[in-house]
Every structure is written in structure tokens, then in C-alpha cells.
Amino acid sequence: MQSDDPFLQALLAELRMLLAQLLESGESGQIDLLRLPMAPAQTEALRALLGQGEIVITLEAEGPSRIEETRLSGVWWVEHHDRAGHLVARLLEVAAVPEIVPAAAPDIGASLGVLSGEDAGKAET
């Protein structure tokens, strides 16, 4: 995977490092794209380089979020919006599964309570 843009070359090198880290130690990582001085054309070029994989996840929490697998397994394009629809985060997350996706232990406990007839209101919120 190549780009003529030195900035994108540096991003791809960082992705290689993060993927190697994930493979060797299981440690995930991320690149916060909104904190980088990227022109819109560079964002589009990066998006095209990474392509799209087979998985798309949508979440509704503090606003809509969309998590897309890129064509590179373990590299995820993540965008979070606030309730007004403004983009608040754009990340490249390098992980087997994005950090926000797995259910948290307290939420699982609340679900168990619902199924057991206890604290039914907790899991409904």
C-alpha cells in the first residue's frame, strides 16, 4: 500500500507499527485523525487507501457512532458524533475488536438482573 503524499506515508508507517504491536503483544492502539493537520483531500485519500472491509457497526450512545472495518483486518475507521450530529472524533483504531464495542461488566450484570426479575429499570435505560 503506497501513497505519494509524505504525510499519508507517515500515517501508514504508524499503522504498520500499531499492527505489529497488536500481533506481538495484543496491545491495541489508535490514531486521532482530528488532531492531525490533515486537509480534506488527505482524509479522502487515506479513506480510499484503507478501503472498506466486511463489518460496519453503528452505535447510539451520546450521539451516533459508526465503526467500519477497513480492508486491513484489525484496522477500524471510527467516527463519533454528538447528539446534534457534529463530528467529535475520527479515529483509526488498531484492535481485534474496537474498544467501545464489547459490553461492559456492569451492563451485563444489569441484563442478568432483568432476566432474573431484579432491577428491571436498569437495563431499560
Compact description:
It is built from 4 helices and 5 strands.
Shape: globular
**Structural class per helix/strand content?**
alpha+beta
Largest sheet: 5 strands, antiparallel
Question: Mean of the pLDDT scores?
Answer: 92
User: Going across the major beta sheet, what is the strand order?
Assistant: 1-5-4-3-2
The helicity comes to 25-40%
Order of helices and strands: HEHEEEEHH
Query: What is the CATH domain class?
Result: Alpha Beta
The CATH topology corresponds to Ribosomal Protein S8, Chain: A, domain 1
Beta-strand share of residues:
15-25%
Low-confidence stretches at least 5 residues in length (pLDDT < 50)? none
Note the gap between the termini.
44 Å
What would you note in describing this structure?
Pfam families: HupH_C. Belongs to the HupH/HyaF family. This is Hydrogenase expression/formation protein. The model has no long low-confidence stretch (mean pLDDT 92). The chain has one domain: HupH hydrogenase expression protein, C-terminal domain (Ribosomal Protein S8, Chain: A, domain 1). The protein has a five-stranded antiparallel β-sheet. It is 38% helix and 24% strand. The protein contains four helices and five strands. It is α+β, with helices and mostly antiparallel strands.
